[in-house]
Amino acid sequence: MKIKHIDHIGIAVKSIDQAKKFYTEILGLKIEGIENVADQKVNVAFLPITDSELELVESTHPDGPVAKYIEARGEGIQHIAFRVEDIEEALAELKEKGVRLIDEKPRKGAGGAKIAFIHPKETNGVLVEICERD
Ligand code: ZN
Fold this sequence. Notes:
Layout: E1 3-13, H1 16-26, E2 33-37, E3 42-49, E4 52-59, H2 65-73, E5 76-84, H3 87-96, E6 107-108, E7 114-118, E8 128-132
Parallel strand pairs: 1-4, 5-8
Antiparallel strand pairs: 1-5, 2-3, 3-4, 6-7, 7-8
The chain binds zinc ion (ZN).
Zinc ion binds next to strand 1 and strand 5.
């Protein structure tokens, strides 16, 4: 598969409103938009940095995956996403190599991306996302 660059780093936060202060007021980054991803029960704030971005991810529901993540591990880097040219091809290649996947098929992520997660057992505990955008 062809990995183009780091697409984004997902940071689990309790509150975008609280967390954004450091990134905007201290680092001078800009929030390009905030999107609700209903099926993940999260709001996602996008802070672009060249070809990549930070995503501040807050849970909208106490039983959502990000709320559970924060409960178990605290706030912090939750996942890293690599941009690929062709996600279907990348998933086929990973399956062929016997890599455990969380998502066998691409699903819709924030910002209109097609995304899939690799199982963290395969990646030394890092939750890796691959994503494709037009
Ligand atoms: Zn992501």
